[in-house]
Recover the amino acids of this structure.
């Protein structure tokens, strides 16, 4: 990615933050969010995050890598499991990174 | 400094200061997590190839960990700018709901101040603020106490986030590339995502989005991602309606 597009992304992300976080603080007098839209919005972030994460974990060089030897997949599952069990972001990221490093070490 | 921040009237200022400090205190446990998160984001930004200047600008201006972390794999894959921004917007859509909930508290302020208050609101700040003040009757919303409490939380979160992000950015240069530390961004997104999928419709939507994203990973311009989000939301809403109907029939 070129230098210029990185700067455009940074400027754009700043605008995105301000716009989403203050959307209804500023517009709330004039618009109300319909119930149905609110529900749709509630699901959107989870869908976007999973859509970002899933290919990173299971697609490797353009092919599906659903194997126990795939370090990213195993590390991702471990992190998710730890998060479920402990609710600790720290623990989840630490265990995930350890599994990732360990499997990569033994694989190569 | 005190006068500038809390106003010239001594009595008013001391009350404001108390509320501000209580806000800082209330967010302190969460600020530790924010700090870790900042550290990870700082490291990850540099590891996907941003220069120190770009990483510093991103953290100081954007001030949104989830959107920043979501943008990183896309920047690394040289996705088009609009896909990066659209993805960050979708990840940030939860704040649109938060802003609607905060609106009754801040309605008396000018548009400019509301923009600033919105910019400073975070996931954790929102949760702490509403758990404390949501049961107040409508006419008590937006009191000076609430606003200064909010600002105290915001100041604390902002400092925790920025200081650790900056440390992360400079630390990243010391970590060898073969550690694969940029992967920590994905792990961070996983940790962020898990609590969001605890309802059945959300889980169904998320699984659908994941499957579509993998199947469509070969599409150019990361369009598979956009498609996955749209199909995922539709699946979640469909599941919600179906579950309601099923509950109504029994």
């Amino acid at each position: 990615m070129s230098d210029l597009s990185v700067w455009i992304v940074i400027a754009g992300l700043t605008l995105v933050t301000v716009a989403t976080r203050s959307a209804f603080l500023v517009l709330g007098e004039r618009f109300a969010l319909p119930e149905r839209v609110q529900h749709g919005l509630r699901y959107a972030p989870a869908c976007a995050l999973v859509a970002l994460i899933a290919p990173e974990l299971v697609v490797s060089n353009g092919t599906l890598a659903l194997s126990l030897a795939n370090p990213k997949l195993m590390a991702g599952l471990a992190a998710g499991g730890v998060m479920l069990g402990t609710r600790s972001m720290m623990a989840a990221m630490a265990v995930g990174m350890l599994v990732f490093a360990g499997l990569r070490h033994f694989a190569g | 400094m005190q006068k500038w921040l809390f106003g010239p009237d001594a009595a008013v200022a001391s009350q404001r200061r108390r509320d501000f400090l209580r806000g800082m205190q209330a967010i302190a446990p969460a600020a530790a997590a924010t700090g870790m998160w900042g550290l990870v984001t700082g490291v990850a930004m540099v590891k996907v190839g941003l220069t120190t200047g770009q990483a510093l600008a991103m953290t100081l201006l954007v001030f949104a960990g989830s959107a920043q972390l979501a943008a990183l794999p896309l920047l690394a894959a040289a996705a088009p700018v609009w896909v990066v921004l659209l993805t960050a917007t979708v990840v940030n859509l939860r704040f649109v709901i938060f802003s609607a909930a905060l609106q009754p508290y801040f309605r008396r302020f000018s548009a400019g101040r509301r923009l600033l208050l919105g910019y400073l609101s975070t996931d954790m700040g929102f949760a702490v603020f509403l758990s404390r003040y949501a049961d107040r009757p409508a006419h008590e919303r937006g009191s000076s106490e609430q606003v200064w409490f909010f600002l105290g939380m915001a100041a604390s979160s902002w400092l925790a986030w920025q200081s650790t992000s900056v440390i992360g950015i400079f630390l990243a240069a010391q970590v060898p590339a073969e550690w694969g530390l940029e992967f920590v961004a994905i792990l961070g997104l996983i940790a962020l995502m898990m609590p969001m999928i605890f309802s059945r419709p959300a889980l169904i939507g998320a699984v659908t989005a994941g499957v579509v994203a993998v199947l469509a990973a070969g599409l150019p311009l990361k369009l598979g991602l956009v498609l996955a989000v749209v199909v995922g939301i539709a699946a979640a809403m469909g599941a919600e309606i179906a579950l309601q109907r099923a509950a109504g029939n029994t």
Remarks:
- Residues 50 and 74 of chain A are 16 Å apart (CA to CA).
